[in-house]
Amino acid sequence: MRLITVRTPAGEGKEVVKIALAQGIGEAVVSMATLHRAGEGEVSQDVVDLATATPLAKQFIEALLEAPFYNPTTFSFTIRHPESLFGSKPPKDEAHPIARPTTDVYQELYQFIKVTYSLAGRVFISAVLLAYGMVENFLPIIIAGLLFLPFHHHLLGIALGGVTKEWRFLGQAALALVVSTLLIFLAGICVALVCEPPMLFELKGSMLAGIVLAAVIGVAAALASIDDAGRRELIGLAATAHISIYPAWIGLQLVYGEADSHKIVEHLVSFLINVGVLSGAAFLTYTLTGMKGSGIRRFIKGLAA
Q1: Domains in the chain, please, with CATH?
Q2: What is the sign of the dihedral through the CA atoms of 120, 210, 167 and 287?
Q3: Which pLDDT does position 204 carry in this prediction?
């Protein structure tokens, strides 16, 4: 369910309403407002308010962004997620949870792929817990560390960036992935320097099994990200557990020296393959479920012009 507010130049609200009704939205409310912007005078605007099901919201936003009259410098919209919606259609229609607007998925992931001191701190602290749990082979600490690693958001960001052809977004996701991987690796080294060997945790499983698991998790993670009812935090734990253990293990073993170089290289290759497979599976899922980037690219290009 979505509540959408669109602000347009005065007189353009009726065009937005036409698009909304054409996409199957049952009703729209148009009101007048005055925009006060710093350094500029007052500007009259139309304000269009919509309340609709999630899939209709996706269709409407994509149609609006591609409409010939749409101008990113004079139009704006916000989308909210209400707890309930009793409007012009029965609950079985209004509560349909999939698929979320591409703009929702895009901006949610953007928050997770921005490299900030908070991201660095969360990743490093979580990775320390993960690495220490691996040294002691203590599952509760391993899980505690995995819970706060935002690893799967970076991989989904790479996939969505590829589908939408928004290359700056994809680059930001790739940067976040590299930074997080290095921090997990460094956390493993730091833990190994203060904890006595041996490492009791054993990294098991064949490369083929890892590839299959990465593909399954990639599909599930992408589906969860476009579904209002998706348990994204649980899927994230699965993705994080499957992949982020590798850089922590390599960091620990470089200090402990318990594994030969061939084994370290093998796990490094497994890590890179799993990253690629998970991102690829998510890319395919986003493509098949209709995630579109033309409107987002038009918005960014319009603001930069």
Answers
A1: 2-96 (3.30.70.120), 103-288 (1.20.1080)
A2: negative
A3: 81
